[in-house]
Amino acid sequence: MKKTLIYLGLFITAIVLSACGGDQSGNAEEEKGMEPMLDTKVTIPEDIQPNEEVTFQAKVTQGEEAVEDADYVKFEFWAEGASDEEHEKVEAEHKGKGVYEVSYTFEEEGAYYLFAHTQARDMHVMPKKKFPVGDVQITEDKKEDDDMEGNDDSH
Predict the structure, then answer these.
(1) Distance from the CA of 21 to the CA of which of 7, 49, 131, 137 falls in 20 to 30 A?
(2) Has residue 20 got a pLDDT over 80?
(3) Residues 103, 134 within the same domain
């Protein structure tokens, strides 16, 4: 009798556990119904020289759709090795078709970074790019750029 109760208990436990994990199709359907991720592609001008105004662009999309209603797109610039206080953020202007643009002048040559902080549709992405200003050779921070590319930081 004792063995029968133990087997019955194990059988009931197995049924309960299989019922809890059995319906995975609902999760797959929910994932299929999720909105595509926000994507920001940054265009950096070639041959940037100190004391010359240049224009940076960010193309913001969600799936195939251009994002026309971003809460903001801000370009954050700083020289390599600069402290956190030396970062400058400039809000980009929406130009249409998902393109946001900012003009900026660098005072000194060197290696620079930019984050394109993009907030839209309850998502935030901030791709990071490294680029030269003036006659400077830079090495790519490949690992960092791969980690920060496109839609790396969605909230």
Answers:
(1) 7
(2) no
(3) yes
